[in-house]
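Archive entry: two folds, one per protein. Generate the first.
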Amino acid sequence: LARQVGHSKALDLNITGETLSPQEALAIKLVDRVFPQEETRAKTLEYAQKIANSATYATSNIKLSIMNGKEMPLNVAIRYEGELQNLLFRSQDAQEGLSAFIEKREPNWTGK
C-alpha cells in the first residue's frame, strides 16, 4: 500500500482504519477505474475479454517487466525490459501483428 499511495497515506489509512469512497480511492491512485455498481460485472467481463483477445505473450512480458522491474535498480530494470522486448520482437505474435497491420486485418494472436 505504501508503494502505491505513499508512506504517509498508507500509515494514515492503516492506523485510523479509515475507509475510502471509490472516488477517493481513484484520487489517490489506489484504483484506476470507477464505475457504477450495476455496471461492475459487465465492465469487468469487458476488460477481461479485451485482455484475453490481446497478444497474450506481449501482455505476459509487460506484466513481468513492470512487476519485476519495480524492484530493480533503474539501470537493471531498463536492461531487463530490453531483454523482454527483444524476445517479443522475435516472437510469432510480433510477426503476426506486423502482417495484420500491413494487411489491414485483425491479428490472430497465438501467445507464441
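Generate the second and append.
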Amino acid sequence: MALIIAGDRSGVGKTTVTLAILAFLTQQGNRVQSFKVGPDYIDPMFHFSATGIPCRNLDPVLTSPNYVQNCFKRNTQNADCVVIEGVMGLFDGIRNPEVTNTNSLNDYGSTAHIARILNLPVALVLDCSRLSGSIAAIALGYANLDPKVTIAGVILNKVASDRHLELLETALETIEMPILGVIRRNQEITLGDRHLGLIPSSEIPNLKSVFSQLAELAKTLDWDKLLPLLTSSPRHLVTSPPRHLATSPSPVRIAIAKDKAFNFYYQDNLDLLKELGAELIFWSPLEDRQIPRNVQGLYFGGGFPEIFAQQLAENKTVRQELKQIIQAGIPTYAECGGLMYLCQQLIDLNQKTWSMVGVIPSCVTMKAKLTLGYRRAMALQTSSLVTAQQTVRGHEFHHSQLTAVSPTPQWQLKGFHNSSLQLTEGWNIKQLHASYLHLHWGEYKFLAQRFSQRCRNYKN
C-alpha cells in the first residue's frame, strides 16, 4: 500500500520524482496520502498542493517509532495509494543516545529507519549524470547494506541519451536490479530554492502548470512495476492503539497565522487542537487588516518573515493590535518565524530594518550561519505551553539571531547526539511562549492540552 522514494544522497531528484508520482496518481483520480521523512515543512506543502490531502511528517526523533507507526496507520485507512518521500541519503540519520539496541550504522531517523519501522519497500533514485557501469556498484551496495531494507528497484534520473541508458541497463542487469523508471536529463523540472530550501509552493504563481508538467514527466516511469508497490498491503505492520483525547464541552477559537510569511505547521499539531475542541481560525498578518474577532488564543508558526518584512511592517494596525492583546494576556504560541515577528525589529537579508510587533524586547537579524539540528529541551519555567521541568525533543532551523536574550529563558537546550552543545533560549512574557524550537506535538499531547486549557481559561 506504500512505497518509499529515497535517494543515495541529497540532490539526486527524489523530491521531483515524488511530486511527479503524486501529481500523476492524483490526475488519474486516486486518493493519494503522502508522507515526508524528517522535520521538513516545505516539501509537505508541495505534497499537499499536488494531492489536496495534508502530508504527514514521519520523524521518530521528534516523536517515536511507535508514533510513526500509528500516524501511518491512522492516515492511510482511506487512501488508494501511499507515497513516502525520504530525507537526504537512504541511510543518513543520527546516533540516538537514548536507544542502546540500534545498529552500527547510526541511521536513527533516516529513510532506512522508516522503511524498517513500517516494513515497506524502497525505490532508490539515482543521479546518472556522471555514471555508466558504476551504477551497478552503487545499487548493489545500497541493496545489500541492510537486509531489513528492501530495495524494490531504482529510478534513473538525468539519463543523457539512448546509449547512456543502454550502458546503465546492461550494468543493472548483472545484479538483477529492477528499473522502475527513467527520467531524461532534459526532462527534469527545476524547483527554485533559497536560504532554507525550496521556495514554498504558495509563492509559485504557475504551480498548476508545474504539476501538469510533473504528471507528464511521470509517464516515463514503469507503472506496471510501480502500481503494485503503491497499492499492495503493508507487510506485518504492528501498531499499538492510539491514545484518545477527551474533548472539552467548552470550545475555544484559536487564530492560526497562515500565509506566505507563516506556513511552517505540522498538520498533526493542528489536528490535536481540533480534537481537543478548538476551532481554528486561519488568518494572514500580511493581508488582513485586523485580527480575527472573538479568539482566545494565537498560534504563529515558522516561515519567512524576513522575506516579507516590509509588508509585515506596513500592516501597522495589526501589529499594534497584536501587541495590545498579547500584553493583555491572551495565550500565544510563537515558533521561530513567529518569534521573529513578535520582536521589536527585524533586519532583513538586505540589511534593512523593519518594525515588528514589539512584544519581545529584542531585535532579530539575519546571519549567514545556519543553526540546524535536533534538540533535547527542558522547560526552565512554566508557560502557556509547558510546565517547569518537562522535557521534549525539538528541532532548530534558522539563519536569524536575536540581539538580546531573555533574562529568564524558557528552555535549556542540549544537542540530541552532541552533549557538548548546551544553551538557553526562549521567551515567556505573560502568556506568550516564544522560541526558536520547532515542536511536533504528536508524542507530547500534553502541549496541546495545556495550550488549549490556557485558552479556555482565558475565555472564561
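Annotation attached to the second fold: The mean pLDDT is 93. Residues 108 and 330 are 39 Å apart (CA to CA).
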